[in-house]
Amino acid sequence: MKAIYFDEHGDYDVLRYGDVPDPTCAPGEVVLRIEAAALNFNDIWARQGLPRVNLPLPHVSGTDAAGVVVEVGKDVERVKVGDEVIVYGVNSCRVCPACLRGEEVFCRTMRIWGFQTGPYDGAYAQYAKVQAQQVAPRPTHLTWEEAAATSTSLLSVWRMLVTRAEAKAGDTVLVWGASGGTGSFALQLCRVLGARAIAVTSSDEKEAFCRTQGAEEVLRSDRDDVHRGVRELTGGRGVDIVFDHVGETVWPISVECLAWGGKLVICGATEGFMPHIDLRYLWNKQLSFLGSHIGTHREWMDCLRLVEQRKVHPPVTQTFALPEYAAAMRAMEERRITGKLAIRVGDHA
């Protein structure tokens, strides 16, 4: 089968488009013909390599996928050949205490599919295998590309805002990186929850996009003092929640923007892992710093209900063919995007 893969970590020149082995279906697994995939920042981390993280090589990336079941393994009963499905990105043992209580993200063998799994085990390929429990029916009102984008970013946002930060109607939420895939889902979810979203972005085009996604106010990192802007918009109070997936470069500003008793929730660090903080802010303002990850299967079902109800819509703004994957990744890495980027795979079978 054709796939995008790499044999070593590095820059874009390590990416290859070519033939790799077809997946084999073990008991409890299904094989999908991939119709579309969607990009996440873990694609960049996988290609570059991360300290103390061993990723199987050769590597096919891609955690978000939509496709058609073409083979089912032994003991698979609820999924059948021909089903159109989307993929939940958590691969876990399904039998440990954490899994049995519905907290797969705390399973000691948990792996993010298409990031930590492999070799040759991700969405940027004509075919892929996943655990049968990882698939759910494709929302029929969505295109293949939109369907592929209903998993990782939306699920991570749900866990951050609903489960971890307990956002509620009336809260004010500062959303960093608001025009990207994760940020735009955060804006949409704030709107659903009745929270006031203040978006931070960096251009006229991105500002306009954020407003379509639910931002009530927009601050411009290219021209505004974000801390001053937050104080003006909140009457000096600060925000109840800072939604962060940027990390080191914005951390000091985030802490200053929080109201007394506020919460900072973070799911990633696209601009650095080693922030500086004055701990006096932490105890004097009685702040809460919350780490978050991809969510549970139960949380994913909650997300998909919002998608089915048309309250949240995958913000796919550009689609690339599979051989154009490197161009899509470069656009994401250089922040030349709004919303989610998708990859067409099916028409390259």
Structural overview:
With 349 residues, the protein is of the alpha/beta class. It has two domains: 2-150 and 314-348, Quinone Oxidoreductase, Chain A, domain 1 (Alpha-Beta Complex), CATH 3.90.180; 157-291, Rossmann fold (3-Layer(aba) Sandwich), CATH 3.40.50. Helices cover 27% and strands 25% of the residues. The protein contains eleven helices and 17 strands. It has helices spanning 41-48, 97-100, 144-148, 152-164, 181-193, 204-213, 226-233, 251-257, 279-284, 297-308, 325-333; strands at residues 2-5, 16-19, 29-38, 64-72, 84-87, 90-91, 111-112, 127-131, 135-137, 172-175, 196-201, 217-220, 239-244, 258-266, 288-291, 316-321, 340-344. Strand 11 (196-201), helix 6 and strand 12 form a beta-alpha-beta unit. Helix 4 crosses helix 5 (181-193) and helix 7 runs parallel beside helix 8 (251-257). The longest helix is centred in the middle third of the chain and has 13 residues, at 152-164. The radius of gyration is 20 Å and the shape is globular. The model has no long low-confidence stretch (mean pLDDT 95).
Mean pLDDT across every amino acid position: 95
Overall form: globular
Structural class label: alpha/beta
Strand content: 15-25%
CATH superfamily of the largest domain: Medium-chain alcohol dehydrogenases, catalytic domain
Outline the low-pLDDT stretches.
none
Proportion of residues in helical segments? 25-40%
Total beta-strand segments: 17
Largest β sheet strand count, sense and barrel closure: 7 strands, mixed
Based on CA atoms alone, the radius of gyration comes out at 20 Å
Secondary-structure arrangement, i.e. CATH architecture of the largest domain: Alpha-Beta Complex
CATH topology heading of the largest domain:
Quinone Oxidoreductase, Chain A, domain 1
